[in-house]
Amino acid sequence: MDNVLNIPALIILDVKENDIDYHFTVETVAKPSFCPRCGGTNIVGYGRDVQLFMDTPMHGKRVGLHVKRRRLSCNDCNSTFFEPLNDMDDKHRATRRLIGYIENRALYEAFTKIAGEVGVHEWTVRSIFKDYMNRKQEAYHPATPRFLGIDEAHLFHKYRCVLADVKERTIIDLLPNRNASTVAEYLRKHATEPDQDRLYGYVAALS
Questions:
Q1: DSSP bridge pairs for 165
Q2: pTM above the 0.70 mark?
Q3: Which of 85, 89, 104, 188 falls between 20 and 30 A from 69, CA-CA?
Q4: Can you give the C-alpha Rg of the chain in angstroms?
Q5: pLDDT digits over 83-140, tens only?
Q6: Mean of the per-residue pLDDT values for the chain?
């Protein structure tokens, strides 16, 4: 059967279709060669479990992958494990490309709408987007501007602090409120060695 899923690691065994869904029964092409816990190669299989992972929509229909996943045991460390699925996200039971699809769509569309389109619970969309934003936040390390602009904006019935680079005319960050203590803590947190004197000067001005 042609691999219309475009996932080389999987073999399609069967496909069923209804008015709103495609259901693919699949299994992996190759058996794992080592134990993910100890790295040993003395592993044996003892059956399979069928696990459902959702995938990106196809032809306007939701796509479910029923993976016949191997259960294995390592004779070296006596651990048991499921075969790894590199194209899947075990936490959310979705393909990694669906995770990316949801992350992009959730920036501008309602979670409930996305959930209905792809066949997952709204809470799953919310969880995926939360993880995405946390990663973005952890990776965000703004440079200290020469001239820091501090203003406020009234959003969603509350005032929030807006930090801007005055020279470059760009927004640096949006804080949860406009309290002086919140702003001071933000500046302390983002102080790097070359910028500490300048940032501490900003903090002192707020105190």
A1: 148, 170
A2: yes
A3: 104
A4: 24
A5: 999 999 999 999 999 999 999 999 999 999 999 999 999 999 999 999 999 998 788 7
A6: 89
